[in-house]
Please model this.
Amino acid sequence: MALASNKIKSIGAAQSPLLGAAMFSPAVLYILLLVGGPFFLAIFYAFSDARIGNAEMHFVGLENFRSILQSPSFRVAIRNSFIFTICSQIVVTVGANILAISLEKTFRGRGLIRFLILLPWVAPIALGAIGWKWILDSIYSVITWALVAVHIYKPFSAPMWLGEPRLAIASVLLVHSWRLMPFSTVILLAGRTAIPKDIPEAAAVDGAGFWRTQLQIVIPMMRPIISVAVLFGLIFTFTDMTVVYILTAGGPFDSTQTLPSLAFALGIQGSDLAAGAAISLFLVPLLVIIAYFMLRVAHRAEVN
Amino acid sequence: MAKRKQEGLSRRDFIKLTGSGALATGVGSGPFFLFPERAAAEQKTLKILQWSHFVPAYDTWFDGTFCKQWGQKHDTNVIVDHINLVDLAAKAASEASARKGHDLFMLLSPPAAYEKQTIDMSHVYQEVEKKHGKKIDLAHKSTYNPKTNRYFAFSDSYVPDPGNWHKDWWTDAGFPNGPDTYDDLRVGAKKIRDKTAHPCGLGLSQELDTSMAMRALLWSFGGAEQDEAGKVTINSKETIEALKFMKALYQESETPEVFTWTPPSNNQAMLAGRVSYVANAISITRQSEREHLPIDSKIMICAAPKGPARRIAAEHVMDCYLIWDFAENKDGAQQFLIDFIDAFHDSFIAGQFYNFPCFPSTVPNLKQEISNDPRASPPDKYKVLGNVLEWATNVGYPGYGTAAIDEAFKAWVIPTMFAKVARGDETPENAAKAAEEEYKRIFARWK
Model:
């Protein structure tokens, strides 16, 4: 009966190709207008002398790229983009695996814990970043207050979390990891629950301990799922400017600037649209590579 | 059915009753009730965007009194939107790109980059000058482009940028009137830091207050971003001396918190009784007065410190109104500005002396008024601002506030240069050279 019903449905779809196109078109429109349009505009701007407030534009070739390559802030931004992306993914992958292992077991209050862990992902990132800004604030930091209260630091010599370049970089990393951990945890948790129970049980019978089971059986089986989580994490971190913008605004003295935040600072705040566009285009090759791998992983999952 | 009718009104009765009532009201109040679009078509709209003022009472007066009365007088619906000052640049950029937005847009620094998308304000200045006399040089240099002979914005007011100092600590350090020179600042701040651990709070972050404080320091030592003709002059021995001074001040008396600051941070640090000195407008003391904070009587105001070259500081913010060339109500916007200057004294009072006039005749007794303020403790706390025009100048000094200067300002070149040297990440010589390259790169793009 179900088979017959499916057959009727597929025949219906095949007979009305317009229906398929109509259902597909919102996604195509969305991509063309909100992704394709700005992307090609950015390419156009990057080779021009476009400026906010100036209606005229001229072709300047590679001048914008030459100009930004000379900027020390740009070199710092490239370095930071990679540091934030790679380091946060290492922290997130390790942390999310630990959380997924913990949350796989049944225990009292598991639902509440899962809800709390998911909260940073559900809450708007701007809200979370503002919360962290206050937690790490130079005057009102609750962490500093606690450290002073237990006499680890004196009142005026406590660390300035967002004022020292290394601490500021670590703070941005922390917030990125905090934000992405729930997403990865949920994905990995789903992957773990999908592994047939008899496989780790058989391994246990054969004498495999916890680490051996995890490293040689569970994690290799979850590799496609972990890849999905990592690739999404890479994209989210590499293209994000909210955390840096709210937490440090690129400071202290450009030491936490990333490519997206620098593109915004120069292109929008600094009125130099062409330079902003050129900086943002530096993201493209890497994002294309990541997107390629994402599609490959998705295709493999589909085949399996 | 009959029973339901007896219990109350039926649905049909209700519609009849309310319908006839509404019709009667509509007839009584004229045809606009039935055709509201006709009413809207006859009334103009003026859309204004400006910052959320640091003195909230100013916004209350501006929106609730001045705009309301002006709207009634000119049969115009005046809509005022307020946004945080740090979002002004991005908002202006989006309006300019979309070629749609507010009729009047207020920025807090000279918006020369937008000249080609704004109308010439010469007419507004001329009309105002007929009634109120000449504008101050600060307003002229902040809104005029000598190359095109156009005013790209109109400035009604500027905000002084004095020093705010903690009376008890500075008195103990031997400076009962606060620091008068940069040498006083360095010596006194170090004494206070050594004795009480309270740091000095001269910002070194990528934000407005730091930008102004560092420009004041640079100019006071004889350095400048450009000369009068607009040639880059940042890499000079005077700049290097200023950088050396800031490095010493930071290392002796400050903490890394100054690298993290946003515009309200030095207000918070001063009001929390944490720092001994900051450079800021009078928003700090106005807040302490408004909230009756115990620290209020301890925070004093002084003129910008004098450096080896002169006593000079930037305006803290410069009100610059621009009118987009795509604005829907250009005439209304120009008239609004002309009338606003007529009411500037009320604005001065409502803003609790925060905004000083660009047309001095609008507040003829400024010195007397600020010298006896019942809100202040002591009442003559603000007296020192009476001669502010002797030491306040524009961004881009000694030249004009050009588009290149505007971009360098927004790219935080000066704060970054000072911060790197203060941290010890760059030598003063290398930092000045790097800043010169950045300025030349930016200036070349605006040629």
The longest helix of chain B spans residues 11-28. The longest strand of chain B covers residues 44-51.
